[in-house]
Design goal:
30% of the residues lie in helices and 17% in strands. The protein is of the alpha+beta class.
Length: 578
């Protein structure tokens, strides 16, 4: 790679320190370890306790997939508001030997009782998100364990049961509640109203559990022990499946209709991996049923027609340009992307070089286009466009990046959707509310919505686990992803531009002030210096909104023989390595 296109400039190496294992109770690495250096193996994940377990698994000879499985089990316990075995996710795996990339879709599915009108009120209008989020109606059939079992079958090294032991021990012995978890418990308006969550997250007097409390979860330990000994079937069949169905159907408010049969027939899927050349990098991400990878790649595919490296990072010209490209990608996302098992998704056409060049030509460098319209990559689509929901993104979802000793890598974004999911706890874990990611309005302008509710269907996601390679040599260069709802697309795109165009080190790339556009207002991160661009953006025709943008990216960059890891300072993640 030419020096100007390197992901990490040599000067940044002077800022790096060797990794030291942080104690599980810490919430963030010290300032000196914002970029962590290793030479053999590394994890970057959302919680220090999970990072410690993941590195221990790698030290035992485990693979990148093994470490990801062990860390997900720990996150189910210590970061229950964000992800867990009651939810789903998307995982990319890179095999250093042979260079194959495997893509695993563990997205939740709608039960057979679901229908396109399920989120409409008696007046035929869409109900409010906050009204349908808690309870059983929003719960999709969890996919995490089936997906991880499939990935382990193909890429695991250590026995399945070994990967569950750290989380089982931690659930039985207890973990220290972090400030972030304590704050989210205290601030959640629903958590204390539901019997199953009130009894776990609140004291006998109704007081939310405080930071520093030792919290045990013997019910989760029993669940994980059953899955460790009997595989994912222990979750999808028998007692646990019956408990999930009973909880969903008995929930108040919003009883659901999930059955044991819905749970037992769930299957994880392997999907094609979309990739796109950007500068001297080849960027690969997640395809449908997630919209995230396509939208990230489309945005980059338009931006490669502009010289971002010549623009001031996070300056007015760069922010305007990136926001306009994002508008166009989100317009296409709304029109064309849904579950590929239910309707064709023109992924190849959306990423076609000529098509993206035409979309890039729609960008005016001096003036915002306002609301973008979807392009026409194919005349065959019968899918309808609906306005994107501009809602605050909850502090949910999680991401982990892993590189093992042999150079295999995992990028895994995992979620239960909103913070604390559907606010239903069963057998020690929270159930997701992922069905609220479906379009609440089933049709518009005479066309069916691509993301309408249908039985057995996966709701569209924005999760964007990403792998970056050298376009010439094929060598792995970066592993990254972020939580953040629909904002994930903007967070990952911005991180990639920071790494590739602006040559930022991993920490600087993900800690930079956020700006994004979902084909609505241009959103600037509140309480950051980037707010000063608001008046200049408005002068170019943007509607501007200030908002807390709580990403949680975890990234590993490979620079020669060195692994450089960093976690987003907005959350409590950490990178550890040897």
């Amino acid at each position: 790679m030419r020096p100007r296109q390197r992901f990490v400039v040599a000067a940044a190496l002077l800022l790096l320190t060797a990794c030291t294992a942080a104690p599980a109770g810490t919430s963030a690495p010290p300032p000196a370890a914002r970029v962590v250096r290793a030479v053999h193996q590394m994890v970057a994940v959302a919680h220090p306790a999970a990072a410690k377990v993941g590195l221990d698994i790698l030290r035992q000879g485990g693979s990148a997939v093994d470490a990801a499985i062990a860390m997900q089990m720990v996150l189910t316990l210590v970061e229950p508001q964000s992800s867990g075995i009651g939810g789903g996710g998307f995982l990319l795996h890179y095999a250093a030997e042979g260079g194959a990339i495997d893509s695993y879709d563990g997205r939740e599915t709608a039960p057979e009782s679901a229908n396109a009108e399920m989120f409409l009120g008696d007046d035929g209008r869409p109900r409010k998100f906050a009204d349908v989020m808690p309870g059983g109606l929003s719960v999709g059939v969890p996919g995490t364990l089936r997906m991880l079992e499939l990935a382990h079958r193909e890429h695991g090294r250590l026995p399945w049961r070994v990967l569950f032991q750290p989380a089982i021990a931690l659930a039985e012995d207890g973990f220290i509640v972090s400030p972030r978890l304590a704050a989210e418990i205290a601030e959640d308006p629903v958590l204390g109203t539901q019997p199953t969550t009130r009894s776990y997250f609140f004291g006998p007097d109704g007081t939310p559990i405080a930071s520093g409390t030792l919290l045990k979860n013997p019910a989760l330990a029993r669940t994980l022990r059953a899955v460790a000994e009997n595989g994912a079937d222990a979750f999808y069949e028998g007692r646990i499946a019956a408990d999930i169905a009973r909880t969903v159907n008995g929930a108040e408010p919003n009883r659901g209709g999930m059955t044991v049969a819905d749970i037992g027939t769930y299957q994880a899927e392997k999907r094609p991996v979309p990739c796109l050349d950007y500068r001297e990098a080849r960027v690969c991400s997640m395809g449908p049923s997630s919209s995230g990878g396509i939208a990230v790649l489309q945005t980059l595919g338009m931006l490669r027609h502009f010289n971002l490296a010549a623009l001031r990072p996070d300056g007015i010209d760069a922010v305007h340009l990136i926001a306009e490209a994002s508008r166009l990608a989100f317009a296409d996302r709304e029109r064309y992307i849904g579950d590929p098992d239910f309707a064709p998704v023109p992924a190849d056409r959306l990423l076609d070089a000529d098509y993206l060049a035409g979309r890039a030509a729609e960008i005016d460098l001096a003036r915002s286009m306002g609301e973008a319209q979807p392009g026409r990559p194919t005349e065959a689509s019968l899918l309808g466009a609906l306005p994107a929901r501009q809602i605050a993104e909850p502090l949910s979802t999680s991401h982990m990046s892993v590189v093992d000793r042999d150079g295999n890598a995992v990028s895994f974004t995992t979620s239960i959707e909103g913070a604390f999911g559907a606010h239903l706890m069963v057998d020690g874990f929270l159930l997701n509310n992922q069905l609220t990611d479906f379009a609440f309005t089933p049709a518009a302008r005479g066309r069916a919505a691509a993301n309408r509710v249908e039985p057995g269907k996966r709701p569209r996601s924005s999760m964007s686990p990403t792998l970056v390679f050298d376009a010439k040599s094929g060598a792995l260069r970066a592993v990254l992803g972020s939580p953040g709802g629909a904002n994930i697309i903007g967070y990952v795109t911005q991180a990639l531009i920071g790494l590739i165009d602006w040559q930022r080190d991993p920490y600087a790339a993900i800690a930079a002030p956020h700006f994004l556009n979902r084909n609505g207002p241009t959103i600037l991160e509140a309480d950051r210096d980037i707010r000063s661009l608001g008046s200049e953006l408005e002068a170019r025709g943007h509607k501007v909104k200030m908002q807390e943008l709580s990403s949680g990216a975890n990234v590993i960059v490979l620079e020669g023989a060195t692994l450089l890891g960093a976690s987003d300072p907005r959350r409590e993640g950490i990178a550890l390595g040897d």
